[in-house]
Give the backbone structure.
Amino acid sequence: MGGDRAPAEIVAGALLAAGSGITPILYGPADLDPVGLEHVVAPDRIAMDEKPADAVRAKPGLSLVAACRAVAEGSADAVVSAGNTGAMLVAGLIHLRRLPHVYRPAIAVPIPTAKGPSLLLDAGANVDARAEHLLQFAVMGSIFAEELLEIARPEVRLLSIGEEPEKGNALTLEAHALLAASDLHFRGNAESRELLRGAADVVVCDGFTGNIVLKALEGTIETLLDALRTEIEATPRGKLGGLLIRPAARRLRTRLDPDTYGGAYLLGLRGLSVIAHGNSSRLAIANAIRLAGRGVDRDVVGRLAARMPERRSVAAV
Amino acid sequence: MGGDRAPAEIVAGALLAAGSGITPILYGPADLDPVGLEHVVAPDRIAMDEKPADAVRAKPGLSLVAACRAVAEGSADAVVSAGNTGAMLVAGLIHLRRLPHVYRPAIAVPIPTAKGPSLLLDAGANVDARAEHLLQFAVMGSIFAEELLEIARPEVRLLSIGEEPEKGNALTLEAHALLAASDLHFRGNAESRELLRGAADVVVCDGFTGNIVLKALEGTIETLLDALRTEIEATPRGKLGGLLIRPAARRLRTRLDPDTYGGAYLLGLRGLSVIAHGNSSRLAIANAIRLAGRGVDRDVVGRLAARMPERRSVAAV
């Protein structure tokens, strides 16, 4: 029931993803038509005037809560939701619980760059983070990049307003010092203008900044391609050119389309959790479910748990 | 002497802007070739290992400091610099000084949107701002939009991670409450994905977030247009199409090119100050100087001073 287009697009996306080793289980109200998929009734809904995080605490019959509990109890392998991020975080913290040594789970979004995926975290779980959280996001991102993206010694950068170490706000200045003193492959600050060019294998920031910058990327890509189309269609010459470049433009749009990834792992919990865009289409939902499937196959949670250093050694200061 | 390409591009840009009522005065070392323009010797330089803000306090012979003092003393009408933003801010605070009632000056960047310019502030002067600063940025932005952009009742939005009032970090939640209680035309939160579409006449945020989001926009536009060119040139069909759409793509690139604006006003000081990109080309510098010229003609400082409310009434809570 999470997301702007639930339940129709969620159900359709689950149907698309079904098969090839993936068995979707739909959590939703009794009157849901599960189109032949497995269906567990979760009768509660978040009311219009209710804070999502409060609802998670109060209502065990929310689809999100029921799905997280299924993962915790072992009756499902991963949970996928396009619902409210804050609600997902709270449900994950309560029902899946944090991995040992983890302060805060973080959303890790793979940014599609010309050099391959660049992992941005946190993309929205922790809007007010502390420097030691950013350090730990870098640790989790590095383990993920090594184990899952098979990058030998992942480069880590800190998102800030200039490459020089003294450029930043109070949070990034403190985080820079922690990262520089850690045993990570820290390469200093990255500017947001470099993100899409592939600034580093892992780019860390607080969840507010990460969410803002990610939506800026997505919005700019969309607006720019639309503006280009308008400019092209303003003249007959342009129109003809537009027809000819259409396959090229489509390849680019597909590569950069957030729906192509569909979702992002919420790293740091004891169960696998994928957060999809609130406005996810069925295609995005299907890809988010496949992302969850790959995460299970490749044991994202187990490999992160096995390598997560103790807090003391994380800081290394 | 400020900026990555000083002094060559600065001098060339000043030469481009000279005439039509603009008389550039170059502040720089004795061995500078001023190509016939007025030249005031400013012998000091910021050392490699020196913090720019410290240098401003210690060295009266820095070109930036000398230029700010010229404005304060009335021997110049405005100062333009592509140098370090922090240095410019400190030089402005010390030598130009704040307008009455102003807590913090803010960099106001006009984002080129399909609906006309959208003023983003603060774009980098205050990396750690408080909620009352954000409120005042909204006040300065609204006055600027009314007086200079001739927008009758400028819409103000607060940059955050969701449109709902409860979405944001501690800073934006507090700023949201202040803005909602003010007599500004506050329309709630804006997401960064809407910025280039024209989210509002005035969009406020802290300087760290503003700088990050602005560079994300610029970097994404540049990277995307480059990637599109690469895709287009991958096939003969695409190449032909690329030739045909070239004028359209060029129109778009020009409209969105940061060099077209060249710089941004640092609002809230008693003298007119324009901050240009560190990597400004001569064209960008010329446009930044013209922006300063228009600011003098249209009395940006005087009109802001005349309408800047007292702090108590600013808060209106």
